[in-house]
């Protein structure tokens, strides 16, 4: 009789029977085999902070998208949203791992060993004021139309940034961006198709899409002002000045909204990079309670 191993046995056998932390995003080091040397003339603390900004945006938006699982309007869309969330989670893992390799410090240090944190420690054991994501990704989902408007904006901004990061002097960031561009192109196009379908659909779908635009538009106020870290790294050829992608993003959103018969609202006034500086609303604290709760209750759990 042929023994068919269970999923759990397969995982154990594939990784040598050693215990694994139950909350990790994978078993292998995400940057294994990659030269993680910081380029000459670059402050590792700046590079780590920048990776946190990009990684936190992806992690928090991925968590928001998972809230649609079992709630999406159709089965095919549930699969699509799940896949987009997984893409963003993969980007977050790489970026947080990069942040760890350059020595991100603070309360995120491993409390047991005082070692440099890996991507799991950075994801699960930082408090809200240590996160560097923007207000756009942490805002509650709202209905499906608002989620698609938010995804359209977030993917358009991130795609514009990643397209430029392919030329980053940091080879790790450049490699992450090269892979991410393909994923983000799909994310943006998927959201755009839904915005067109909803905006130019029924009276009810149009109303909901318009409400989504009005809810999401103010969330762009902290997207396009660079922090001091971004300014220094942009000058060094490592990062992208967010102000430099504003016109491209505006053109994309205007084109989609006009074709969807939705209003193009006045661009919100810049408020400064609040989220990038750790200024968040209670929504992020609530989201992190769900994301981090089990890991914090059982920080040494293995399976």
TrEMBL record:
GO terms for biological process: phenylacetate catabolic process. Transmembrane segments: none annotated. GO terms for cellular component: cytosol. It comes from Geodermatophilus obscurus (strain ATCC 25078 / DSM 43160 / JCM 3152 / CCUG 61914 / KCC A-0152 / KCTC 9177 / NBRC 13315 / NRRL B-3577 / G-20). This is Phenylacetate-CoA oxygenase, PaaI subunit.
